[in-house]
């Protein structure tokens, strides 16, 4: 379904518990994210395993038009789309 579909189905990206200040109700920091997998990045951008650089960049550009904060999206979604593009482009270079 991709990141955009999931976010739209859920009614947009909403901050989780303790979003103000980044801590939960006990004062603990949120769990750290190690990094995005290549499979997750492909799912977010909606591209297959054989996607080349041009296809990745095109998918990124089209999705950013929909999720960018300047067009009514959220910073969190835009960040995930950026990260997905970076992960896939880095994976191509290896």
From TrEMBL:
<dbReference type="InterPro" id="IPR036869">
    <property type="entry name" value="J_dom_sf"/>
</dbReference>
<dbReference type="InterPro" id="IPR001623">
    <property type="entry name" value="DnaJ_domain"/>
</dbReference>
<keyword id="KW-0812">Transmembrane</keyword>
<feature type="region of interest" description="Disordered">
    <location>
        <begin position="1"/>
        <end position="34"/>
    </location>
</feature>
<dbReference type="GO" id="GO:0016020">
    <property type="term" value="C:membrane"/>
</dbReference>
<feature type="domain" description="J">
    <location>
        <begin position="40"/>
        <end position="94"/>
    </location>
</feature>
<protein>
    <recommendedName>
        <fullName>J domain-containing protein</fullName>
    </recommendedName>
</protein>
<keyword id="KW-1133">Transmembrane helix</keyword>
<keyword id="KW-0472">Membrane</keyword>
<dbReference type="Pfam" id="PF00226">
    <property type="entry name" value="DnaJ"/>
</dbReference>
<comment type="similarity">
    <text>Belongs to the TIM14 family.</text>
</comment>
């Amino acid at each position: 379904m991709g990141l955009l579909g999931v976010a739209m189905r859920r009614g947009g990206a909403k901050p989780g518990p303790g979003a103000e200040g980044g801590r939960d109700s006990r004062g603990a920091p949120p769990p750290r994210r190690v990094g995005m997998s290549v499979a997750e990045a492909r799912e977010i951008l909606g591209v297959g395993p054989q996607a080349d650089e041009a296809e990745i960049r095109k998918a990124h550009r089209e999705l950013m038009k929909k999720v960018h904060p300047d067009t009514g999206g959220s910073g969190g979604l835009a960040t995930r789309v950026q990260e997905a593009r970076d992960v896939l482009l880095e994976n191509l270079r290896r």
